[in-house]
């Protein structure tokens, strides 16, 4: 009876002509019911994707969804037939002026470009170029430095979370808010811009062109981003098969970005027996894992939808781009929308806007140059340890004595909004409370503090290795207890230890 009364309370708020956001926040903090797509609607309201005026929802959603589709058309391409016809027309005009067959170049090489373990380039005649090899027969990456001079300017290595992050200035990130903010490049199925062979082209722009004005440089840079996105979204939530399943609403008109990414295992020649008679292997080498199964034409997996959303976001936000770990943040958003009957058909577009809104609040956690700012990840981790020292100085002293720094565990906790610490249903429940707070960063600190205090007895009795394993692999627990503890910490009701 109490549950039905709670459903009726949500319905009464959501059916008003103008939503009372303060009242909705209080309801959502204690958890949103799954039935009837209520959580999807509440998250859209909490992230300000939907206006408070319910009468404007239909027009607003239609506009936003059309705007996202325009981004996809401009960046990914409307369809293979349109892009191919555009490229063919440009090739014919170019052939008349140059007297050479650019169409042959395109057919022989350009349409077959993809990312794989052993890169094969092509020259301006369409012939494949075998990369140079070292003394051991391993291809050298002679073009990597010229193609990505500044791609990893803000990367971060060595973190326990293994997140690579790219930096940028505070003004570099541009959130698309109108139709005029678009890229002018249209990519066909092979990822080649149709502007590469425009009316002014003389076919001098080839894959080995190191000029900064070469469109191939942009192509290879996009492929590097796409390769990282593809690896991340394929392994999203490996403990459940939802993201590997086919979506009920595929976008067949949009070419698959995954077709630009192929996985080729590296093979080494068997060493001559006379040189390895004294070599003894302690254990046999494991066979390489098979590549992910690609669905049949006309079908599209959920992870392919997320791949497109993240690629569009990275292209529209060049100052920030794609950072490893964003796939963990977009996963729960898409899952809530795709499992909602009212939002499943437009889950891709709605997910893009919700992800953009959420990243606007936590983007500073992904920008290295803002680590020491008030909302940066460095300052946030420092606030976590200060809060822990206030509420539980014994546990804080134990961690300090053992040399367990907050970077070893809290970096992943805070930057990924705890999405890797709990199962997906628990993450969604935690996000109900996180998204309903106006002081998002403060509540993240209190929730992380509560996670440590809830394991107080185990930490005080454990050594360095045991406590590191505990904090980096948080044990299963009831997240409602952690939320209640976080509330006590945030309101000052907890007296400390």
Furnish the topology, listing elements before pairings:
Layout: H1 2-14, H2 21-29, H3 38-46, H4 57-75, H5 80-98, H6 102-108, E1 121-122, E2 128-129, H7 144-147, H8 215-234, H9 302-316, H10 326-338, H11 347-362, H12 377-391, H13 393-401, H14 410-415, H15 424-435, H16 440-454, H17 456-461, H18 464-472, H19 479-491
Antiparallel strand pairs: 1-2
Domain Rab-GAP TBC: 33-438
Region (Disordered): 82-103, 117-208
Biased composition (Polar residues): 117-128, 180-192
What does this protein look like?
With 497 residues, the protein is mainly α. It folds into 3 domains: 56 residues, Arc Repressor Mutant, subunit A; 272 residues, no CATH class; 121 residues, Ypt/Rab-GAP domain of gyp1p, domain 3 (Cyclin A, domain 1, Orthogonal Bundle), CATH 1.10.472.80. 46% of the residues lie in helices and 1% in strands. The chain contains 19 helices and 2 strands. A hairpin with a 5-residue loop joins strand 1 and strand 2. Helix 9 packs across helix 11, helix 10 packs across helix 11 and helix 12 crosses helix 13. About 30% of the residues have low confidence. One of its GO terms (biological process) is intracellular protein transport. It comes from Hirondellea gigas.
Task: Quickly list its features.
46% helix; mainly alpha; globular; GTPase activator activity; two-stranded antiparallel sheet; 19 helices
């Amino acid at each position: 009876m109490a549950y039905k009364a709670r459903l009726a309370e949500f319905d009464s708020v959501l059916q008003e002509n103008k939503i009372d956001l303060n009242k909705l926040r209080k309801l959502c903090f204690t958890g949103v019911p799954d039935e009837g797509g209520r959580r999807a609607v509440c998250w859209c309201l909490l992230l300000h994707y939907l206006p408070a005026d319910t009468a404007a929802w239909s027009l607003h959603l239609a506009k936003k969804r059309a705007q996202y589709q325009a981004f996809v058309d401009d960046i990914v391409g409307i369809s293979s037939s349109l892009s191919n016809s555009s490229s063919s027309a440009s090739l014919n005009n170019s052939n008349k002026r140059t007297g050479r067959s650019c169409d042959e170049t395109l057919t022989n090489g350009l349409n077959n470009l993809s990312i794989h373990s052993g890169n094969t380039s092509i020259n301006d005649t369409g012939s494949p170029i075998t990369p140079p090899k070292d003394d051991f027969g391993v291809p050298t990456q002679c073009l990597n430095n010229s193609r990505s001079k500044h791609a990893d300017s803000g990367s971060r290595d060595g973190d326990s979370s293994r997140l690579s992050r790219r930096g940028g200035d505070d003004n570099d990130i541009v959130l698309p808010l109108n139709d005029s903010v678009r890229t002018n490049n249209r990519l066909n199925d092979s990822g080649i811009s149709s502007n590469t062979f425009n009316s002014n082209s003389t076919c001098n722009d080839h894959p080995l062109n190191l000029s900064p004005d070469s469109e191939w440089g942009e192509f290879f840079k996009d492929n590097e981003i796409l390769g990282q996105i593809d690896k991340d979204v394929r392994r999203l939530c490996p403990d459940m098969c939802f993201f590997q399943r086919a979506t009920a609403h595929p976008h067949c008109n949009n070419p698959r970005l995954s077709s630009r990414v192929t996985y080729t295992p590296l093979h080494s020649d068997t060493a001559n027996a006379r040189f390895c008679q004294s070599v003894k292997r302690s254990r046999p080498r494991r066979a390489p894992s098979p590549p992910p199964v690609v669905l049949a034409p006309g079908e599209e997996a959920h992870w392919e939808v997320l791949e497109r959303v993240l690629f569009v976001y990275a292209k529209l936000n060049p100052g920030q781009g794609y950072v490893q770990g964003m796939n963990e943040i977009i996963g729960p958003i898409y899952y809530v929308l795709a499992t909602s009957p009212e939002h499943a058909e437009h889950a891709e577009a709605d997910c893009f806007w919700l992800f953009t809104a959420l990243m606007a609040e936590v983007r500073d956690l992904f920008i290295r140059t803002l680590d020491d700012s008030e909302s940066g990840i460095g300052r946030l981790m420092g606030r976590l340890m200060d809060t822990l020292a206030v509420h539980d100085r014994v546990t804080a002293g134990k961690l300090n004595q053992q040399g367990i720094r907050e970077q070893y565990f809290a970096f992943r906790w805070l930057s990924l909004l705890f999405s890797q610490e709990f199962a997906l249903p628990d993450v969604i429940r935690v996000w109900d409370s996180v998204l309903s707070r106006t002081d998002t960063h403060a509540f993240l600190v209190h929730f992380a503090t509560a996670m440590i205090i809830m394991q107080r007895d185990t930490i005080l009795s454990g050594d360095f290795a045991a406590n590191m394993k505990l904090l980096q692999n948080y044990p299963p627990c009831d997240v409602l207890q952690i939320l209640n503890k976080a509330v006590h910490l945030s309101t000052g009701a907890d007296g400390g230890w």
